[in-house]
Amino acid sequence: MTEKKLLQVLDGARTETPPVWMMRQAGRYLPEYRELRRRAENFLDFCYTPPLAVEAALQPLRRYDFSAAILFSDILVVPDALGQRVWFEEGAGPKLDPVGRSDPLAGLGLDNFHQHLGNVYEAVSWLRARLPADVALIGFAGAPWTVAAYMAEGGSSRDYADVRGWAYNDSEKFQALIDLLVEATAAYLIRQVDAGAEVLQLFDSWAGLLSEAQFRRWSVDPARRIVEAVKAAHPHIPVIGFPRGAGVLYADYAGGTGIDAVSLDASVPLGWAAEHLQSQTVVQGNLDNLLLAAGGEALDEEVGRIVEAFAGGPHIFNLGHGIIPATPPEHVGRVVDLVTRA
Fold it and tell me: Helix 171-195 to helix 161-169 angle, to the nearest 10 degrees?
């Protein structure tokens, strides 16, 4: 039996308290991260510099009793490695040269994909070697729909209306982009496992924008194909899926993708999730990240409510979305203490 509680739960074991980690547990809420970030010219350079990426991933482990570390990187390294121009503007987030609607694959390809991402794989290997014996290593990627949304819109958007319209109006060409991303994402995740990742998470941050039929086509089906490819190469590697905002369609995602665990956003009712999701898979989540930032008695009560609601089955304690920069570090420590002493 592994010492790593996260792997135990993903393998179906019952543990006295749930494993705990948090999306964006490394990042701007930590003063030591902000100091470290100054050592790179831009954010992509930071992600592609193994000593910096590894240090960022290790920083929260020095403060908190997390059950896992997660690779420090970004979902947009995939389009960057495919040949799309990607950059980050301070205060404005990611920017990309949008793919063309008439020929979305122009200039994109897998020829130099793994070479471009070599430093990421190196960071995974370095990080695995530096982790405590009881801490699991999580690798990750963005899901094809979410990455395609950024690629098509050229950055962040309130509702991604342009790319959603494109997917309706010219589904054949949009499918070609999704197919390329399925192949690239599966290859990327497999290489992360080759380098030392023990768990994988697939982030579909904009899945909740899709209609029911589009959700099945652009979120569920690509995730299923990626999971199949990963499992063909590494049958025992667990995959966590996070189709944020999916609502009742979380059940379709959990049942139709082959994932080993489903990560829930904060809007998912605990009782419904325990009945309809935890009965078929491991659940992860789902504390509101804004409540984590707010703190106080309400935070303590909600942590207890989540732990109690999922006590009857396999559960990984996490947030419903990533830690926001305004979060006081002591609030994170408070939650970890509450969960691990439950």
Answer: 120
